[in-house]
Amino acid sequence: MKQNILILSAGVGAGHNSAAAAIHETIGNNFADCIESRWIDVLKLSTKMFKKTYSDSYLTLVNHFPALWGLIYKISRKKFLSKISRAIDKPDSESKKNILNAIDEYSPNIIICTHFMPANLVLKSRCNIPVYIVATDYDAHRLWVNKKAAGYFVSCEQAKWLVSKYGYEDKKIFITGLPVHPKFTKAIDKYDIYKKLGLKPELPAVLLMAGGFGGSFMKKAVQKILSIDKEFQLIIVCGKNESLEKKIKKICGNDQRAIIHGFVDNVQELMTVSRFTITKSGGLSMTEAMVCGSPLLIFKPTPGQEVENCIYALESGFAMYASLTDTLDFKVKMLLENDMLIEKMSSQALNHARPFAANDIIETILKTSVQAITT
């Protein structure tokens, strides 16, 4: 008899949905004979008011008041403040009803959550269904910890230590790494990709993931990078930010080194052919780069989880950090010129990567579910 697994995410930033999509695709590819799965972004079932308030308030804080977000992230680790935050994070009654109705309609045996909001809702309202929580950063926050959860999947030893410190049972915490889409695990021939993308294999390519940055930061960053007097190819990905894409095209003008994209679905190809990747330190973006063996140059991480992710990457040896726009060109130039450093960082990225995390998560859930039934 097949297991019905429901995957719940909340589209606050891209990482939570990316993790959910990775697990959903992995089930379809590797476990279709024993699992039926469905993935729901609970914000799509929420009222417009709750969705706007919940998502927009977070994005406003991280994009316009990052220091304030960092402070909130820090102080809400305290036990009594995390309880207040958890109470505020509850969806309104209509949103809650829609989410719970969707759960009851699917009638899952198991629920996997890649965001703490749906996890806490389900654990309070549907206690008979085992709920597993998949964290999406190289940190662990108290808001993610609910003692009723059937298990936790975390990125690294430090994250496990923190979840345990916040009162969760150590034996139910599993270090699997963060789940990435199965396409990141497929072997890629660099020269085929150079040809496909129209890149020059004799020139180094640098990938700039620009979508997560504000327009003013990115304008200065692109200007700084293109001020470097060297031959290289700068692949700029703007994501769904059309306004940013237009600004960057204007900034780059006729500079033939710049190759500008909007939204792309081949990040794994771009990371694989690039000498290194310039990005903020979102947990999933970092993980994708690690799996591709792409060294990171981290620029302007948001205080809070991104700073913690950045620290992990620096300590693990696969990243450099440009704390100022004025040092960005210096760091880029250093990475363009130092082959030995790039080779070392790439090796460290691959050493710390866990490309089959999604598969390991599902196998662990199936194993622990069987053990729970037989004991």
What report would you give on this structure?
With 375 residues, the chain is α/β, with parallel strands linked by helices. The chain folds into 2 domains: 3-180 and 355-374, Glycogen Phosphorylase B (Rossmann fold, 3-Layer(aba) Sandwich), CATH 3.40.50.2000; 183-352, Glycogen Phosphorylase B (Rossmann fold). Helices cover 51% and strands 15% of the residues. It has helices at residues 15-30, 48-64, 66-75, 79-88, 93-106, 116-125, 157-165, 190-197, 215-226, 242-252, 267-273, 283-292, 305-316, 325-337, 339-352, 357-374; strands at 3-9, 35-41, 110-113, 131-134, 151-154, 173-175, 205-209, 233-237, 258-261, 276-279, 296-299, 319-322. Helix 9 links the parallel strand 7 (205-209) and strand 8 (233-237). It starts with a strand and ends with a helix. The model has no long low-confidence stretch (mean pLDDT 89).
In angstroms, what is the radius of gyration? 21 Å
Provide the number of structural domains.
2
Report mean pLDDT, rounded to a whole number. 89
Number of E strands: 12
Give the C-level CATH assignment of the largest domain.
Alpha Beta
Strand content: 5-15%
Ends: how far apart? 19 Å
CATH architecture of the largest domain: 3-Layer(aba) Sandwich
Q: What overall geometry do the principal axes of the alpha carbons give?
A: globular
- CATH fold field value of the largest domain: Rossmann fold
Main sheet strand line-up: 2-1-3-4-5-6
Number of helices: 16
Weakly predicted, low-confidence segments: none
